[in-house]
Structures are given as C-alpha cells and as structure tokens.
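ok so heres the complex, two chains, lmk if somethin looks off
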Amino acid sequence: MLLGVLLLAVLVSTVCLGYARHVVIAASNAEAAVAVQQAEGAADSGLVWAKQSLLAAGDRTVRLNVGSNAQVAVNVVDNGSTLRTLTIQSSASGVTQAMEGSLETYATVADELPQLTSSARNAIVTHPAVVDVVGSQSFSATTLTGIIYLHNGAHLTLTDCIVAGTIVSQPALAGRWSPADCTTISLGGSIVIESDPALAGCSIVAPDAAVIGDGSEALQIRGCIVCDSLSLTGWGALHGQIASTSVPTLNRSIDLPGSGREPRAWPAALATGSERIGRVSFPRPVATPAQQAAIRTFVFPPDTP
Amino acid sequence: MMERSHSGFTLIELLVVLAIMAIMAVVAMPAAGASYDQRLDLVEMQITDAIGRAQALARSTQLPFGVVFDASGERFAVVDSTGAAVTDPLTRSSYIVGFDRPDQPKGIDVFSAAFGANGAAAIFDGQGLPVSGGTVVVRCHGSTRTLTLDQATGQLASS
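and the predicted structre for the whole thing:
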C-alpha cells in the first residue's frame, strides 16, 4: 500500500507541476500585458499633447503623469528648416517597458491642405461618369459610381449609400473658394466610400467641405479624406489619412486602421509638398541577426536531463 | 483472563485512506497514461506557456526572446537575446523543460521543430511577433500533436 501511495504521489506531482507553471506564467503574462497596454495608452496621451506642442516654436521637453502609474515624456527638437522631431517615451507600472515613437512634421502655410495634382484635375474634367450635385441633394439606399462632383455651396446628404468613386468639390478643382462656396457632406446609415480609379486612394477631396455624421452612420471609408472639418459620431473605420483644417472630431468607436503605426504614402492624385499632417511612427524593434544567432545557438546545459 | 488485542485499523481509518487514494488516482489518471492525448495536452500547454512567456517578455522589454527546442534531448528552453535561459517564474531556476524528467509525462518525443532560417528556435521580436513561423511536432507513442506558429499573428494553433 505504501508503494502505491508513493507512486500516486509522483504522478500527482507530475500533473501539479505542469499546471502550477501554467498558472504562474498566465498570471505573470497578464501583468505584462496590462503594463504594455498602459504604456500604449500613455503614448497616445503624449501624442495628443505633442501635436499641440508643435504650435509652439523651439525645443521643449515635458514629462507628464497620465495616470496613477503611467508617465509619458515628450521631447520636441527643432531640426532646422521646416522639420521638427518629436520623441515620445512612455512607461507604466514601474516596469522598464517603454514605447518610443517619432513624429515628423513639415511646417506649412496655414490652412493649406493637400491639393489635387494637375493630372488629377484633368482626369476629373474628362471623367466619363460624373454625378453633379447642385444645391441640396440627397441620396438614399443607392450606389453612386464615378466622380461625385459638388458644385459651390452644395449640400450632399448620403443615407445607406455606397459610393464606388470619389467625392470631389468644385473648390478642390479650382484651388480657391470663398465662404459662400463651401460645401457640406452629411452622412447617415451605412456608408461605404471607395475611390475612383482616376483618383485612386482618395475618397473625399473637398478642402472646403464640412463632413458631418448624424450619429447613425456606420462608415467604411477606404481612401483618404481632405476636408475643412470632420465630425463623425457614429462608428466604423476610416482606412486612409485625414487632412483637415480643423482638428477632426471622431467618436471612439471609429477605428483608424494603421494610423500612427508607420508613415503612409499619400495618393498620387494629391500634391502634398506642403502637407502639415504629422507622420507618426512607432519603430518596430527588430531582432538583429546577432540576437537571433545568440538565441538560435543556445546550448542546453549538460546537467539538464 | 486474556485481554482482546486492539491492533489494526478501524473501519473509519480504512475508509479515509481508500477515499484519499481514490481522489489521487482520479487526479493522476491523465499522467498515468490512461490517454496519450491527455499527455500531449499537458505538453502542448507547457509549450504554449513557454511561447507566451517569450512573447510577453519581448513586448515588455522590446528585446527579442525565443523558445529553443532540442529534439534529440526531448526538451526546450526560453532564451533571451544574449543566449541565456530566462528564469522560470515557478522554480526560479533556468526555464528549461525536459520531457525525460520524472516530473514530466512519460513517453513524450519532441519529433521535430522547424522555424525557417532559425531552425529549431522560435524567435520573437520586440513586439512579440515571430521572426518566422514554423511547427513543432510532438509524439507520444502512436499519437501526434502538431503545433503551428503563425508568423503574422504569433498565434499557436494545434492540430
């Protein structure tokens, strides 16, 4: 009987050890994951502040507490010419975890947004499928194809629509406009806006336009947006960059896939030589060949059975 | 007049011992070899834990970590970017798990481990994403378990 009990004890310890490690590691990994998320949140907070700090000239360094156990340090360095660099470092929960990001911005003339290139303007003028929007015009539960062209002062309302093309305003084509020429784009319901092949990657090019969601909008906007103001209170995803004169107002339920991860190229139809959109990147810490070799050539100790 | 002997166990004592033995037998049944698949479940959990540990350490420190398999020695280790085994949070010694140890399920064979150019090492970059995907094949007598590490997501799938 004693032998049987001993054998069972060994077998029980086999199971217990495996599960004990599992429990310990799961708890430890969960703590690390929380710390990483806190640090990412801290970096986001720092990024918001950093963008604001660009308005001030000169070098600045600030350390902020963004939570009970999370800090973020923002360093602004003027690299001369029109380039300033930001470095954002964050840490959380007292661990050495930190994220770094850099943001490069190019000073521009005020209120100047990316503009259509001359070839893009020609493509619009000669486009075979143009939907003219004059005055107030509404579309509901339909698919619009080609160039949706907003004349000066137009108000376009889309409800449950698919735009298999690009929305372009007359001021975008002309390059200048008066306040009376400004257009408005209202969105509601399920909205999908792609881009026309002639303006690949551009969903809305209307630097004069106020783009407004009514709160019911479920958006999928595939290309970039150039507008005067953007206020979306529904949900969905904006896959392209946003260039607006005023700071966009976006509901937290609106996802920005890829935003802030790495610099992204603007569509070829837009001239961005004077862009004032900050490009943010979190450099991916790669495993160097030497580090990979060190791991790969790990030698198990001989005393490990 | 002779006194009656009181040596031996009472019925209560015997019942208690039998109950304890029954509980221990039920708990230990998986490791006792009742099912090879159950042994592989335990091995899969340990490998998953090791890979999760390497990913968590990589994300936390922004340095590469890896899990190195030794198919001939039936073991694996969690290794940092300097080539040293990390500390096992349970035992506080090197995070090296050998399947021929007495505290591990019997009959486990790490048949193969292949992760692209890094051979038998699953390496994760500073974001916890694998440098390359790959597979680990573990066998227990007639049963086989294949663990596939997805390069894009870092997820470990079992089949």
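quick notes: The mean pLDDT of chain B is 83. thats all i got rn
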